[in-house]
Amino acid sequence: MRREKNVETFLGCDADYESSRIVLYGAPFDSTTSYRPGTRFASRVMRAESYGLETYSPYQDLDMEDAAVFDGGDLELSFGNIEKALSDIHDFARGVLDDHKLPFLIGGEHLVTLPAVIAAHEKYRDLCVIHFDAHTDLRDEYLDARLSHATVMRRIWDELGDGRIYQFGIRSGEREEFYWASEHTHLVKFNFEGLGDALARLNDRPVYFTIDLDVLDPSCFPGTGTSEAGGVTFGELLDAALKVIKNSMIVGCDIVELSPPLDQSGASTATALKILREMLLCFERPFIRPEMV
């Protein structure tokens, strides 16, 4: 696996591999996108646009200049061979986990989460998943395909089983998906109500944390392939994401479904970048400026 820094890195993510606890990598893949494609461009555009963002966070009084994050660049993924693309993501994530580091994936469509979760589950057999999203993603198949961004959480359930997937912010899906979730996952509609109780139940169990950015209301995040009105605000998502990081043992995570071509204003990319910066700083929080924590 690649251990040399990418030529262009996310702002402040220029540490070497050996000294880093967090490894960023992009999965530019959107071959199963069901409506509007473009998420394959997210990680590349985010790197370029990140230099319009300060390294300092007034939210947490922390600075990326004090962090140690490695940016491994984008994986070279096959767009015509879904299984090969997913296998390559899995192998990279597993390599990072074997080196006792945190793999942080930038999608891409939501299907890229599946191989990253499988890699984490191979190492942590009691793994659970926390999932922020507008959509249930629990269809057994979509357009006769079992591998799709519309089926990703169902395929993750195939891997993990009942009671190990916690879904929040969900406001879209087929009736059968919601009924199925009531028996097999922990699903909270519309918001993050009960997140604290879920984190208490998870206690010290390993967690994979996945954020589909369309959990945000499209009024503040229009740059996504399948917008759904009625989502959470930036502040609500930021507070919930930091709460998860501070109160659970995360062993892998991702943010997915930014599609920069669908928001020429750049506002959606800027929003995704700020979420990314704050998450990275929260992960690094015990290691930088301890007197401020």
Give an account of the 3D structure:
The protein is an alpha/beta fold. The protein has a single domain, classed as Arginase, Chain A. 32% of the residues lie in helices and 18% in strands. It has helices at residues 42-49, 82-98, 113-123, 152-160, 175-184, 195-202, 234-247, 267-284; strands at 22-27, 56-57, 62-63, 69-74, 102-107, 128-132, 165-170, 186-189, 206-212, 249-256. The strands form 2 sheets. Strands 4-1-5-10-9-6-7-8 form an 8-stranded parallel sheet, sandwiched between helices. Strand 9, helix 7 and strand 10 (249-256) form a beta-alpha-beta unit. Helix 2 packs parallel to helix 3 and helix 7 runs parallel beside helix 8.
Brief descriptors of the model:
10 strands; disordered C terminus; 293 residues; globular; 8 helices; alpha/beta; 8-stranded parallel beta sheet
